[in-house]
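Escalation from tier 1.

The customer reports that the assembly of two entities below gives different structure tokens on two consecutive runs. Tier 1 could not reproduce it. I'm attaching the input and our single run for tier 2 to review.
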Amino acid sequence: MNALTISLDIKGTCRILGKKFDMIIANETVSLSQGQQSFSFYKNISCTNGWNSVYMEHIDHPNDLTVIEQENIIDYSTVSFDVVKINGYEVSNNMCQRSGTKCYNPITDKQLTLYDLGEPFKVEYKFYYPLEYWTFALATSKANWGKMGWKHG
Amino acid sequence: MPDNIIKQVGHYTSWSGNLTDVIVGVFPNADFFNDIPDDDIREHCQIIAQQTHDDLNLLAKTYEQNGVRVFRPKIINNKPCIKNCAGVQILNPRPNISPFDHIFCRDNKIVLTWQDINRFEDEASVQHIIDCMSSDIEVVSVRPPNPYDYNFYNKMTMDEWPGNKDVLLDSPSFSPAGKHIFYSSKYLCSQKGIDLMQQHFSDAEFIKLDAPIHNHLDAQFRIIKEGHVISCHSKEKLLSAVPQFKNWNVYTDDTWRTRQLSIAPETPMSAWLDDDDEISLADIAFVHVNPNLVILQRENETLCRSLEKAKVDWIVAPIKYDVYFGLAISCATAILHRTDECIDYFS
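Tier 1 run:
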């Protein structure tokens, strides 16, 4: 039997102040360089029927990514995951949150969003396969009060 | 002339006159979920679906038994699917469970409102009903912008929603009260949407309501009859937001708030299948069949005592999973026509 694969297509924006900003997306290193303003990532990844997780992380955060003057942060580098498409389906923030996707600083445990990430981060991005059942699989997500995705009001 | 012709639409109130024509929401039956591979999810969805399907059918029957003509939306999709709207892929557009959310009728005009991309098929689901309308009924249709700026809407916080980039309009944010139309300024209609409503109903006096009143007004306050109003807010809070009720009897039914608080933030899926009769979303969101009779989804003491004081009787049409969907009788019922009048109730 062939292994299941899906396409992961990410488009993002960034402000890179230092020499480089390395992150790992789905086990692949993505290097952003000084002055870069956008990035894209595309990969076919294996998945299973049911809940899946894709990891994105940026742990090593060089000092030159932040501009500090007299102990005050003047400016800092940022990365935003603006568009995440799974098999062509653009995942909404709402879907992402209700699926239990987590984005946080692994050093401080501070909760973050997928936008304007300016510190070390780790993302566990959750999705359900097959996609057409994801709406209903939300009922098994603890982040969604046990309800399916057909909500009102 | 066939008896499914709709000759007139409109209503000036939610409580006076006789209700003549409604659209009652639909929900697919258990078969919709037959192909879901996960046994637990399938069984869960099928139980919820069949019950909600049956509850809405019973609601429709209850209206018919009380002399109201009932129309039903079509179920567009018979199984889980991915659709495309305005350049965006939509996972499982929601069936038209709550037609009140997208239909507002007044002055022989029907406004088909829209504010949620996941519900882009609502209009198509009632097209066969629109087709039954007399040619002198004006149909105003608000559609998703094409292309839909997914990135713009996706990044918005709850507080920022819905911005003012497009016309986003939500029928339950408006509550007609004779010559006046109350509307909530947050969080569902863009200013462009509110402007559109004001242009179309220029004879009405629009009254903007601010915090603590927000979102769907039918769950915030409900007029039982002239001089009697019930709200989920305290009398003081309601009057501060809506001073027009200052000489009215104001009743408070905030039971749903305390019940909501008692629902654990991580309620497991199975908990929703238990008997949830004690959990209610908005019992006050009832619908008047005539000035002396309402249909409500659940009897609760505060509500029933208030109705008795106003000498209004009630019939119960249960919606077991109302909290699950955030559903109420009023959401499930789009009012097409009432025999009421455009009266000034507040001068």
